[in-house]
Write a structure and sequence with these properties.
heterodimer, A: 301 residues, mainly alpha, Cytochrome Bc1 Complex, Chain D, domain 2, two-stranded antiparallel sheet, 1% strand, B: mainly alpha, 18 helices, 4 strands
Chain lengths: 301, 583
């Protein structure tokens, strides 16, 4: 009886789940992949820049969530096909390119009538475009509107974009946090006094494992020309932080290094925590044994 | 020959303590095993930001185990809430049946706790081994909360085991101590939920970190925009889910019952379980809308992706599931009215209510635009048909679901007064006010529904809160009148528990399966809207699995999880049954 009931219910469960799974196959099927990254340099010509801008607008920028750049699409934001054509007359004193730039970087500065002020800056999450990428989008919008693209990526834009990208690397922030940049210079910043070597090219001179060894044991070697014994130990720094720093320095030389080594970030804490749990369990069992002893003694009396 | 103490059973208090110690030891051993396995695998596998284990996709492995853990966690956190309430009702009414029912609910917990802990430990191993870089980042940010979480786990285990094992000992004058234990189980359980929610919601709507991802304020990271809406949403959903699973257990026991007494006992348990499930389910959309609103506040783009982008199709599935829940709940109530003498008076309402539910279901399940294949979409130049345009938009869908909630509530109220006739002199006036409250709510819901066609999405989602508020207000007014109205009411006859068709029990199983599938789907949407981000807009997913899979694949995984969950739940049911028969 029990087995039969169980079987009946299980078949029923499978049937219901099967129907739901089948309906799941009926809705449109598509995959959404992360946006591809394309390199923009000061030499990128305007046509290529416009092509990159189109990819960014449709992918990483996520612009089509609200706008449309073709006949069909979303209408929460203005139709982008007309943006470039009306851009020159939107705000006094701003030409088409300047207006388009402002509308991407600071969308709230001018909101097109009859549309809500809901757009985040293209430089901020979730789009997170670099200044060079924003110019590429402007170039595409100009082409889309039938105009000649005037947006040009300058060396300054590229430098600024690099700084933005660098700010995203945790290893760089951790070097500040652990005071590495108090003595070492990296990418032109920090290291006042010249008491420690410039680390910008350290990734090219040393393998990631060697940099990690140096961080774990500062006395492992000393760069010729610099005084020994100055670099402090990083015993207290979480192992994950050291791996991040190695990944950042190696990355500057184009080497890829996973910030996670074999060492679990829980290695030390895990043992300490285990000890606390072990002692707590011991105390608990001791208390239970005492309660049982008292009970037996009570029963004996 | 040495003297030996005679063998005698330990005192109940010591026995409860011993069982609790067993529970604590079990959790401790599980944690030690987790640590050793994670360390061993981390040392054995090559260093990488992302890893695969035995050819398994890291995303699918974490998804399956996390969802199963979440389902069991929802069950073990939800059941003590209504078990305690049922116990208190038993004390207040001095009706022993409620205490037995609360005990029956709690019995299901003992085995479920072990499974929850095992799945939680497996999940931790998978995080540490398959996502070491991201786990290290999250661990660094939320370190104090991990320690708090661990403390709360031990506290929860201690109180939950004491609560269960001291049930028989703490009766009579000692009952208040048992209720105090029940309160502690729920306080610690809720705290546990809130801590875990902080990590999950931070990934969706990060706060308290700078541009480089460094922590500025732990409290800001914890109390991010979606934290409290998720807390409330999950708290209600856990009760609804726990109720549905308990009702499924009762259905299983009803169908396997050996005699009428057993059938009557589990019929009543099934009714109470379904009542709890639907009761907690009705205010759930309110918490859902609040969550949606906070997502829009955090990122308009994320909100639009969720409701109007690729994920919008999954809301059609959600509509189908919730519509099915409403149908099943109403069918169960209407079948249940067959065992209530006098309830035949209300049979005339069943057809109109069925029509309203069907109409609401049709509106709600209407897709946003025509369902098309990839090649058809290319031919149309987009997902919207160039001539037909948009069909079902949220304005109409919100209206439909609120009308369905109102109808189901009305169904419940008719069931409740099935065998009772109000005898107070003001009965006619009271019923008129109740009807007016329902009608007024319907007008507000439909009025805002029509008006919201003419406003932008950010304003529209705000209107949905007014619609739900109107429905909730009507319910409060109705119940507030109903209680004094039916006090001292004339009873036409006693409810014949156990005399209900077997298909009503399948309706309860259907409710449980649908709730579970719905939970799996909503979990996927909540996690999926982060798209290729671990922490939205801050920490990118750089693994090969960073893409959003097709809805078909996602629903197959959800279905697999649901089947696995029910197989595990069946083991819990069978063990609970065996324990009872052995006792």
């Amino acid at each position: 009886m029990l087995a039969r009931t169980f079987l009946n219910i299980f078949v029923f469960v499978l049937a219901v789940v099967g129907i739901y799974a089948y309906v799941g196959q009926l809705v449109p099927q598509f995959e959404e992949h992360p946006p591809k990254t394309r390199t923009i340099t000061a030499e990128t010509d305007r046509d290529e820049l416009s092509d990159i801008g189109q990819e960014l607008l449709r992918g990483k920028g996520g612009c089509l969530v609200c706008h449309k750049d073709s006949e069909t699409g979303n209408t929460r934001g203005p139709d982008l096909r007309q943006s470039a054509a009306v851009a020159a007359n939107r705000k006094p004193g701003l030409d088409a390119e300047a207006y388009l730039l402002e509308s991407l970087i600071d969308p709230g500065a001018f909101v097109v009538p009859n549309y809500p002020n809901m757009m985040p800056s293209a430089l901020k999450p979730p789009a997170n475009l670099t200044p060079a990428e924003v110019k590429a989008v402007v170039a595409y919008l100009q082409v889309l509107g039938g105009a000649e693209p005037t947006a040009v990526v300058t060396v300054e834009d590229i430098e600024q974009s690099k700084r933005v990208a660098k700010g995203d690397h945790r290893g760089r922030a951790l070097m500040d946090q652990h005071s590495c940049t108090a003595c070492h210079k990296v990418e032109g910043e920090g290291g006042e006094g010249g008491i420690a070597p410039d680390l910008t090219e350290a990734g090219g001179r040393f393998e990631p494992e060697a940099i990690l060894r140096k961080l774990n044991d500062p006395a492992a070697w000393v760069t010729p020309g610099f005084e020994a014994g100055i670099m402090p130990s990083f015993d207290e720094a979480p192992p994950g932080d050291l791996h991040e720093i190695v990944a950042y320095l190696s990355g500057l030389a184009g080497k890829s290094y996973s910030p996670t080594g074999a060492t679990s970030p829980w290695s030390h804490e895990g043992v300490r925590l285990g000890l606390v749990i072990f002692i707590a369990n011991g105390l608990m069992l001791g208390a239970l044994a005492w309660a049982r002893w008292r009970e037996k003694r009570g029963a004996a009396r | 020959m040495s003297a030996r103490w005679p063998e005698r059973p330990a005192a109940p208090a010591v026995r409860a303590l011993a069982q609790t110690c067993k529970g604590v030891l079990k959790v401790s051993l599980l944690l030690v095993a987790t640590y050793i396995v994670a360390q061993a695998l981390s040392s054995f596998l090559p260093a990488a930001g992302y890893r695969n284990l035995m050819g398994l996709s890291n995303r699918t492995a974490v998804w399956v185990v996390a969802e199963l853990h979440l389902m069991f966690a929802a069950f073990v956190l939800g059941v003590p809430i209504f078990a305690l309430i049922t116990e208190i009702v038993g004390v207040a009414t001095k009706d022993r049946r409620y205490d037995d029912l609360a005990r029956e609910f709690t019995k299901l917990l003992a085995m479920a706790y072990t499974l929850t802990a095992m799945l939680g430990c497996m999940l931790l191993v998978l995080f540490l081994v398959l996502y070491p870089k991201f786990t290290a980042y999250m661990h660094g940010l939320f370190k104090p909360t991990w320690l708090l979480y661990l403390t709360l786990i031990f506290g929860e285990v201690i109180f939950a085991y004491l609560y269960w094992h001291s049930w028989d000992h703490l009766q009579g004058a000692r009952k208040r101590w048992h209720i105090a234990l029940g309160i502690m189980v729920n306080v610690w359980g809720t705290a546990l939920l809130f801590v875990a929610d902080a990590w999950v919601t931070f990934m969706t709507s990060p706060a308290g970190i700078d541009e480089a991802g460094n922590l500025i304020s732990l409290w800001a990271a914890v109390a991010n925009l979606t934290w409290m809406p998720i807390n409330i949403h999950r708290l209600l959903a856990n009760v609804a889910f726990g109720g549905a699973i308990a009702a499924a257990y009762a259905a299983f026991r009803f169908l396997a019952a050996r005699d009428d007494a057993e059938r009557a006992r589990f019929d009543w348990m099934g009714y109470v379980g379904s009542f709890i499930a639907i009761g907690a389910f009705i205010p759930l959309p309110f918490a859902g809308y609040w969550l949606g609103r906070e997502i829009y506040q955090f990122s308009e783009q994320m909100g639009v992706s969720m409701m109007g982008g690729g994920f919008s199709w999954l809301w059609i599935l959600q509509a189908m599931l919730i519509g099915s829940l409403f149908f099943a709940a109403n069918v169960y109530l209407w079948l249940g009215m067959g065992r209530i003498p006098g309830a035949e008076r209300y049979t005339k309402f069943q057809v109109p209510m069925m029509l309203i539910l069907t109409l609401g279901f049709l509106v709600w399940a209407t897709p946003r635009s025509i369902i098309a294949t990839g090649s058809e979409m290319v031919a149309m130049g987009g997902s919207h048909h160039p001539f037909l345009g948009l069909f079902g938009v949220m304005a109409a869908k919100n209206t439909a679901v609120n009308v369905m909630i109102l109808t189901t509530f009305f169904s419940f109220m008719l069931y409740r007064r099935g065998n009772r006739v109000a005898v107070v002199p003001w009965a006619a006036a009271a019923k008129a006010v109740q009807a007016l409250a329902i009608a007024a709510a319907a007008v507000v819901v439909i009025g805002y529904g029509v008006y919201s066609y003419y406003v932008p999405s950010i304003v529209r989602i705000g209107y949905s809160v007014y619609q739900v508020t109107a429905v909730l207000a009507a319910m409060v007014v109705f119940v507030a009148i109903d209680i004094p109205l039916l006090k001292g009411a004339r009873e036409i006859g006693p409810i014949a528990w156990g005399r209900i068709p077997a298909r009503a029990q399948y309706a309860l199983v259907f409710l449980a399966v649908t709730f579970t599938w719905l939970m799996g789907l909503m979990g996927y949407i909540r996690s999926g809207i982060r798209q290729h981000w671990h922490v939205y807009g801050r920490v990118a997913d750089e693994s090969a699995n960073a893409y959003t899979m097709t809805h078909g694949d996602a629903t197959l995984i959800v279905s697999g999880i649901v089947v696995a969950f029910f197989l595990l739940v069946a083991a819990v049911f069978v063990m609970a049954m065996r324990e009872e028969r052995t006792a």
